[in-house]
Fold this protein.
Amino acid sequence: MGENARRRQPGLLAGLLVALVVAGGCMVGGVSSQGQPEQPRPQQTRQPAAPGAKTTRADGTTSVAEFKQDFNDAVGSAQRYWTAQFQESGKRFQPIRRVVSYTRQGEVSCGGQGLPRNNAVYCSDGDFIAYDVNWSVAAFRQIGDAFLFYLLGHEYAHGVQVRLGIRYNYTIQQELQADCMAGAYLGDSVRDGSLQLADGDLDEFREGLLAVGDDPDQPWFAEGSHGTAEQRTDSFFRGYEKSLDACGLG
């Protein structure tokens, strides 16, 4: 997957900016069954265990330099997409402030909570995305570069949810919407030519989504639930095919 030099043209996004807020101050959290806010927490993408060094794809996506380039492209393309969407609605978009990497559990914290290994999160307390670089490089090598664009698209979507004031009672609602928004960003960007799909990229999206699904026996209403592999795949490709209108933002 790669970027095209041509900038995207923003599409119509009626009703998106109903409650624009500035991120920061607290982490995005859920609401308990008693109706009281739970302790804030980072928005995490449930991730598979880091693959072994030998389980790499034979598609050339193996070097750290390639990883850095693709990762930077993913961040930049997500920022441009959401900037254009907000501008189309007559609003100014505030990009996520920073994207940071870490290698050890607890090396980076979100609201005083150390972040785990083998994961990526969006933290509204500081408005940043953090990712385990060792896990991310391993996933890049095993699944492919398209997974990085999904991963950044999902976490960036959490930042957009905060800016729009979107909050749900259950984690799974927040997560599946972020999957849909990531799909919309990628599908729209491919359709307008600002991103180009390579052979196998759609399969890489599917492979990555299958890897990050919840265990089938996890209750959908449990704190931290993200959705089964099937639910996450359905949400992502619904956004990919139908754009943001399919994501319940209006």
